[in-house]
Automatic annotation (TrEMBL):
<feature type="domain" description="MADS-box">
    <location>
        <begin position="1"/>
        <end position="49"/>
    </location>
</feature>
<dbReference type="GO" id="GO:0005634">
    <property type="term" value="C:nucleus"/>
</dbReference>
<dbReference type="GO" id="GO:0045944">
    <property type="term" value="P:positive regulation of transcription by RNA polymerase II"/>
</dbReference>
<dbReference type="InterPro" id="IPR002100">
    <property type="entry name" value="TF_MADSbox"/>
</dbReference>
<keyword id="KW-0805">Transcription regulation</keyword>
<dbReference type="GO" id="GO:0000981">
    <property type="term" value="F:DNA-binding transcription factor activity, RNA polymerase II-specific"/>
</dbReference>
<keyword id="KW-0238">DNA-binding</keyword>
<keyword id="KW-0539">Nucleus</keyword>
<keyword id="KW-0804">Transcription</keyword>
<keyword id="KW-0175">Coiled coil</keyword>
<dbReference type="InterPro" id="IPR033897">
    <property type="entry name" value="SRF-like_MADS-box"/>
</dbReference>
<dbReference type="GO" id="GO:0000978">
    <property type="term" value="F:RNA polymerase II cis-regulatory region sequence-specific DNA binding"/>
</dbReference>
<dbReference type="GO" id="GO:0046983">
    <property type="term" value="F:protein dimerization activity"/>
</dbReference>
<feature type="coiled-coil region">
    <location>
        <begin position="87"/>
        <end position="114"/>
    </location>
</feature>
<dbReference type="Pfam" id="PF00319">
    <property type="entry name" value="SRF-TF"/>
</dbReference>
<protein>
    <recommendedName>
        <fullName>MADS-box domain-containing protein</fullName>
    </recommendedName>
</protein>
<dbReference type="InterPro" id="IPR036879">
    <property type="entry name" value="TF_MADSbox_sf"/>
</dbReference>
Length: 245
């Protein structure tokens, strides 16, 4: 349940005003104590009331005198820099409320003129408008046209930027493909040539081993059937001499 907003006005009822004073005074003293404890700052409070003969102070009379003496030692400009009284507080609140009212009136007027513009777009006539309404309507139309032109320029810039990025990406892809193709042919040549040389070397080594394992028989004089002169059927003897067994 939300708390009811208190109306800031003088309480005419005596008993209600006295009860409110006691309640608010207790809360104020508590807040000053919390501020001094949590933030470690020097603070004091002095409250005069028609219900008590002596003012009520916090934290003590000595503490109040110490804080006031420190305050009086400050330059006069620094003393009044953030000081407010009831009159200045109300003046500030009134100025703030006037600013809010002015802003709200401007928003309401803009919405009203926007509604008139939409009505004119669907065919309603503008004869009932006075000079002020027409001026406001023209200003609103100009503002909308400016926003439209800004939006168009932004979209064109974004489209041009996207096209430039796409063109750069396409160019990069083409260059990469061309580089890879050229590098691939060169790499294949570099790879195939060592493989070819290695294969030739292996083939030569195998042929050499085959020749070593299967030597060619020397060709005889006339072949296997040819008989050497001065020899018999014994192939181990070339001469028929007893001295050569």
């Amino acid at each position: 349940m939300t708390r009811k907003k208190v109306r800031l006005a003088y309480i005419t009822n005596d008993s209600a005003r006295k009860a409110t004073f006691k309640k608010r005074k207790k809360g104020l003293m508590k807040k000053v104590s919390e501020l001094s404890t949590l933030c470690d700052v020097d603070a004091c409070a002095i409250i005069y009331s028609p219900y008590e003969s002596q003012p009520e102070v916090w934290p003590s009379t000595v503490g109040v005198q110490r804080v006031l003496s420190r305050f009086k030692q400050m330059p006069e400009m620094e003393q009044s820099k953030k000081m407010v009284n009831q009159e200045s507080f109300l003046r500030h609140r009134i100025a703030k409320a006037n600013e809010q009212l002015k802003k709200q009136r401007k928003d309401n007027r803009e919405k009203e003129v926007t509604q008139i513009m939409y009505q004119s777009l669907i065919g309603n006539r503008l004869q009932h408008l006075n000079l002020m309404d027409l001026n406001d309507l023209g200003w609103l139309i100009d503002q909308n046209l400016k926003e439209i032109h800004k939006r168009i320029e932004k979209l064109n810039d974004e489209e041009g930027s996207n096209n430039s990025q796409l063109l750069a990406q396409a160019t990069s892809v083409v260059e990469t493909v061309a580089t890879r193709q050229h590098g691939g042919v060169h790499a294949r040549e570099q790879i195939q040539r060592p493989d070819f040389d290695a294969n030739m070397e292996n083939m030569q080594r195998q042929q050499w081993l085959m020749d070593l394992m299967n030597p060619q028989e020397p060709a005889g004089f006339g072949g296997d059937d040819m008989m050497l002169p001065f020899a018999d059927n014994n192939h181990n003897a070339l001469w028929s001499n007893a001295f050569f067994p």
